[in-house]
Each structure stands twice: as structure tokens, then as C-alpha cells.
Amino acid sequence: MVDKVRVCILRVGGTNCDIETKAALDDFVGVDPEIVHINHIGRDRDLMDYDALVIPGGFSYGDHIRAGVVFAKRIITTLSEELRMFVEEERPVLGICNGFQVLIEAGFLPGFEGPSEFPTAALAINESVKYECRWVHLRNENEGKCIFTRELGKGENVFLPVAHKEGRFIFPRKLQDEFLERLLINDQLVFQYSNEQGDPAEGRYPENPNGSFHDIAGICDPTGTILGLMPHPERAYYGWQRPDWTGHKNMLNHADGRVIFESLVEYLLKNS
């Protein structure tokens, strides 16, 4: 086993959740997270020197054109070969909020047949047509394929914040039923928006904050090593980050977001 597993937290102009993501990963023994600007990859940094990749949240390139698309095109044009090799070796990739948008735009999710040349899904403008910043409940729908939720039981509920204007998950209307069935058959559905009791939101606002099809909040690829989700686990890592922390008789050390990083770290250490 190596001394430490290395995690690349990839940032560009407009990324603003990289420091919180690093702080979460710094909390684990045996993990060496590094924030790397994309300009350094191929110059003084090699993507293949890392064991996992995180594309954190923010507003990359000011969400010019649409959220995540410029960052995605930058990855495709400058890192395509390295990232495809990274994915083929099933090294974990986590996309949070803007990172989820990037993975969708770059064709790595849902990835039914592997990375696609063109996007097969989209994260559209919220049905409320406004920026939604609120805490939401999520139900884990994965049966165990996704390596990022293996510390969560099927049907378990977690409480995380969202902060986005373009988070409404959709498929092409003519293909949405077919693609949903493929998600379910492949065990690629990971998180659905739910109420506090863990029942599906069924499109109800604000439980479903953006109007996502089938209440989808997060999906993985067919290997389970690529996860994209709109809520922010790094903003719900410590107990004091919860909005209701003052109401707890005994202060919680950690909040629900920790389980995402814990699952990743357990996977990396086991396979290092």
C-alpha cells in the first residue's frame, strides 16, 4: 500500500468550492489532496500521477454560454487523451454542482456506452427561473455500484445544500423514458430529491428545488467510478455547517456530506 493516495482538485477561473473540497479531504489520514489549475496539467503536473479527480463547484468561466460548457470544452481539447485514460483505468471522478455540469457537457455522464462525443443529458435552468440556494433532502437510490455511496444504505436519506441556477436534470424528451430505464437497469441512479421522511419529492417544490426529471439529483456512469451530483457535500462536511446545528443537544462532529468523501477514501485506500 502506498503512503498516501493523491487527489487532484481541478480548478479554473470561476471555481469557488475548491478550498472547501480540499479541507474535507484533508480530514482523512492517508489522503493528499492538491488544488491544481488546469493550466498546470501537461506542464508541471501529470493527471495520471493522481488516484482520483474532483471537479468542484463554482461558476467556471462565469458560466458563459451555459454552465460548465466552456470548462468541458477546455477539458476535451486539452486533456481528452489523459482523462479518457484516467476513466478507462476506473480512477474515481467526482463532479460537484458545476463539476456535474462539466461532466454532462463533456459526455462523461451518463456515459451509457462510455464517454460520448456529444452530451446525452443536460442540466437546464431551474423551473423557478432563479438561483436556488437551500438545503435539501436526498434519498440514496443506488444498489451498490456507485463507489461514492457505499457507506450509505439503499434508501438512506442525507441532508445537503444546493446552490445553482442551472440544475434541472433532463434527457431529450423523446428518449427520457428509455434513458431512465437504462439508468435504473445499470444501477446508475444515485440520488433523488426527497422530503424529510425520505419519500420521493415527485417534482414538488421546494423538495425538488429545480424541477429535475424523476427528481434526479445525482447519477454515476456504468462503472460506478464517476459520480456527478448537484448538491454540495463539501458544504455539509462538519456539523457546524448544518443550518440547524444550534438545535442539536449534542454538537455533531460531522454532517451528512462526509459520507461521500469517506466512501471515496475507503475505495482509494483499499485499491491503492
From TrEMBL:
Keywords: ATP-binding, Cytoplasm, Glutamine amidotransferase, Hydrolase, Ligase, Nucleotide-binding, Purine biosynthesis
Highest taxon of the lineage: Archaea
Family matches, as NCBIfam families: FGAM_synth_I, PRK01175.1
Residue positions of the active site: C97, H232, E234
Biological source species: candidate division MSBL1 archaeon SCGC-AAA261D19
Descriptive protein name: Phosphoribosylformylglycinamidine synthase subunit PurQ
UniProt xrefs under PROSITE patterns: GATASE_TYPE_1
Gene Ontology MF term list: ATP binding; glutaminase activity; phosphoribosylformylglycinamidine synthase activity
BP-aspect Gene Ontology terms: 'de novo' IMP biosynthetic process
Major location category of this protein: cytoplasm
